[in-house]
Write a structure and sequence with these properties.
Mean pLDDT: 89
Radius of gyration: 14 Å
Distance between the termini: 34 Å
Shape: elongated
Order of helices and strands: HHH
Structural class: mainly alpha
Strand content: under 5%
Low-confidence stretches: none
Number of helices: 3
Number of strands: 0
Length: about 80
């Protein structure tokens, strides 16, 4: 895979993380907020899995940089 491929994957994951983080903020019902938070965490888990697998296929792959490109953060309040 090329850097361009890694960037595309990170961009897709970043958009999904941002979507669910925004959804969590605008939901009015606690149940819906919980579902949005769970969805955001699921996408973060997928980003972590991609970082691990891509790192296993390329010794020069920078997991930290990839996760930063995904806008990977952990909301410990969720």
């Amino acid at each position: 895979m090329t850097r361009k491929d890694y960037q595309m994957i990170a961009e897709v994951l970043s958009r999904h993380i941002a979507h669910w983080d925004r959804a969590k903020e605008v939901m009015s019902e606690d149940r819906l907020k919980s579902q949005a938070a769970a969805s955001a965490m699921t996408v973060r888990d997928i980003a972590l899995s991609f970082a691990g697998e891509l790192g296993n296929t390329n010794p020069r792959f920078d997991r930290k940089r990839f996760l930063e490109a995904c806008n990977f953060t952990i909301d410990w309040q969720a």
